[in-house]
Design a protein that fits this description.
The chain has helices at 6-21, 26-29, 44-53, 60-64, 66-73, 99-117, 120-124, 127-148, 174-192, 219-236, 242-254, 289-297, 303-306, 314-326, 336-339, 447-460, 468-489, 513-518, 529-543, 548-558, 596-605, 615-620; strands at residues 77-78, 151-152, 171-172, 197-198, 201-202, 267-269, 286-287, 342-346, 352-357, 394-397, 400-403, 421-422, 433-434, 442-445. By secondary structure, the chain is mainly alpha-helical. The radius of gyration is 26 Å and the shape is globular.
């Protein structure tokens, strides 16, 4: 299987642009073919907006390829038709790597203007904006290095500024890169939390205002975000350098900038009322049975935001009853797991009549998942979950045929705004759809994530002044609340009202639900380190359902979900030795490429086999910080 690597492609494209533009200096070019009315110097504020505009770690290509794999490997989703024996393989392309290079052309220009091009007092007016560029870079660089390891970072986009121009940037080793990223965050926080002075004079800072799509130019908010990003680096270092991981965490915790701990601290990305994120539909798969059971059993409201209601509302259940009465020999049937929750009566004509839902009632009874095992669709015990012939969930009434789906899918309207949904009803009923495009709101980083990292680090022994139990509970609560918030912003179906007015319920958060959930044993820490770590990592796993790359990193470094767990088990796909990739494929560069030897040496020094999609190879060859981490499903080893 041939696979190209877009991460390397982005770097090559960037280098080509730089080479094309590096022949003349700014002073040489400024008087050539210039219209006096043209803007010849970029506005730092608009450059910052441009960087944010291309900060897209959840874009179409990533969901179509990388995230679709990761969600299935993490058993968040499975194929609605059953996982095949090659579900552990990557496809022909990916979109995760190289995302950082799309924004660095803007952030590096800002940094150059402020640090080198402008006169000192002019430059000083933009120091806060310059400081805000570093957390953007760091956030995206982590996504790249997570799956590829070493990467070109410290010297990229220097051709237009260096003399001689750097056209072949070095690859930074991951162990050096993570510290470099941490130092950039430290620099950012230090700048944003102190006044900027020139010759003892405090310089007023240029405000971004509405040019900042996330925090409206608030230096306090950006400092808090940058400081919180340090914890992402800390937890990645736990197996490679635990002492450094704790040092970073302790510095971040004690830093006056503070850490994200409230909903209004969260990094929510929205490009505007006409931006729907991407245009084409995606299909990351169906909810898995074990995740459904865990979340419904513990009444976790997030299942309603992450996944869709199935088709079997009371109207559809009654339609199946009516169809059965008219067609006694029909193949169509309501799955047993749904019928177990249906309360019905039988009239004088032996005709079933829907009466109501048994506990736990709506909306919980509208969420069901599929088994994850390879070829589960061929096993008799799972016949109610799959419909290979298209006969089980399709009925005819009122001279109209309609298909239905008892399984919940990944809620794609949480990641793009152009979804069209037809509300389920009996055949012959008027077709009602939710098809109005909605501006997309996405959570890139949240206070919930930060609190769960703090709970993890404290449980492992970091010297931070928190109670792990309190941080854990706070993290879980904030996770529910932020996803309830963005579900409302994205106006996902059923949020405000149920289509089935008589027997349905909306999905928005209800008073008392969080308290009930946190009262369940699976959502409480007890002081037993091993059990507490599993619970913490399970909550990270669930929280990252809408951030698949982070979910996969957490799963990879923790070994959670675990085989044989009595909470949320990692179900063997096809035996416990079933391999999953620990990194993504990298292609051998062309010999004609200027970067050939640098890239080749970087891959060889990491022990990578190039241009392979052999899962056993990709399972064995790990990035630097992953080398001491447990195998998938084997639980924490710290």
């Amino acid at each position: 299987m041939i696979k190209y690597n877009t991460r390397y492609g982005w770097l090559l494209a960037a280098l080509m642009l730089l080479m094309m533009g590096s022949g003349c200096s700014r002073d040489t070019m400024k008087d050539i073919n210039t219209n006096p009315g043209d803007i010849t110097e970029p506005d730092v504020r608009y450059l910052f907006t441009e960087a944010l505009r291309y900060m897209k770690p959840l874009d179409y290509r990533q969901y179509f390829y990388d995230y679709s794999y990761m969600l299935k490997w993490g058993q968040i989703t499975a194929s609605s038709s059953g996982n095949g024996d090659r579900m552990n393989e990557q496809g022909i392309a990916d979109g995760l790597g190289g995302t950082v290079y799309r924004v660095m052309s803007a952030t590096k220009e800002i940094q150059h203007l402020v640090n080198e091009a402008y006169a000192p007092e002019e430059a000083a007016k933009y120091k806060y904006i310059e400081a805000m560029t570093y957390p953007i870079q760091v956030y995206l660089a982590l996504l790249d290095t997570d799956m590829y390891g070493d990467m070109a970072y410290s010297e990229v986009f220097q051709a237009r500024y260096s003399n001689p121009p750097i056209l072949t940037p070095k690859y930074d080793k991951q162990q050096e890169l993570l510290i470099l990223l941490y130092n950039e965050l430290k620099k950012s926080v230090e700048t944003l939390t102190n006044p900027v002075t020139v010759d003892g004079k405090v310089i007023d800072q240029t405000s971004l205002g509405r040019q900042d799509l996330v925090y409206s130019g608030s230096p306090e908010a950006w400092a808090r975000f940058a400081n919180s990003l340090k914890l992402k680096i800390a937890v990645r270092l736990l197996h490679a350098d635990k002492a450094m991981a704790f040092k970073i965490a302790e510095e971040a915790y004690s830093n006056p900038a503070g850490l994200m701990e409230a909903l209004d601290h969260d990094f929510i990305w929205n490009l505007g009322i006409k931006d729907y994120h991407f245009n084409d539909p995606i299909n990351p798969g169906a909810l898995t049975k074990q995740l459904r059971d865990f979340m419904v059993d513990n009444r976790d409201p997030r299942i309603r935001f992450f996944f869709t209601k199935n088709s079997f509302n009371s109207k559809v259940v009654q339609a199946f009853f009516d169809h059965e009465a008219e067609n006694p020999e029909t193949d169509a049937k309501i799955p047993d797991y749904i019928m177990e929750l249906v309360d019905y009566t039988v009239d004088a004509d032996n005709h079933k009549v829907f009466k109501g839902w048994k506990a736990p009632g709506e909306p919980w009874v509208r969420y069901f998942g599929v088994p994850t095992e390879v070829f589960a669709n061929e096993k008799p015990e799972y016949k109610d979950y799959f419909d290979p012939q298209g006969l089980l969930w399709k009925i005819t009434l009122n001279d109209q045929e309609r298909p239905y789906n008892p399984i919940s899918g990944y809620n794609t309207e949480m990641v793009w705004g152009r979804g069209v949904m037809t509300f389920p009803d009996a055949p012959g009923a008027a077709v009602v759809q939710d098809k109005e495009p909605q501006p997309w709101y996405g959570v890139y980083m949240s206070s919930a994530e930060v609190q769960l990292y703090l709970a993890e680090l404290k449980t492992l022994g970091a010297n931070i002044g928190i109670d792990a139990k309190e941080a854990f509970a706070k993290g879980v609560e904030l996770s529910v609340r932020i996803y309830d918030k963005v579900a409302a912003l994205n106006k996902i179906p059923y949020y405000e009202e149920a289509y089935d007015k008589q027997h349905g319920k909306p999905i928005k958060l209800v008073n008392g639900e969080i308290e009930y959930m946190l009262g369940q044993p699976a959502y409480q820490l007890t002081g037993d380190k091993a059990k507490d770590l599993e619970k913490i990592y399970l909550q990270q796993h669930i929280h990252f359902t809408m951030l698949p790359a982070e979910m996969y990193v957490s799963m990879r470094r923790s070994g959670v979900p675990m085989y044989d767990s009595n909470l949320l088990p990692f179900v063997p796909f096809d035996g416990k030795d079933y391999p999953l990739a620990r990194r993504f494929n990298v292609n051998e560069p062309l010999k004609s490429d200027k970067m050939y030897q640098i890239v080749l040496d970087a891959y060889k020094s990491q022990g990578y086999t190039m241009s392979t999609t052999d899962v056993k190879v990709l399972n064995k060859e790990r990035v630097w910080y992953d080398k001491g981490a447990p195998d998938f499903g084997h639980g924490p080893n710290l």
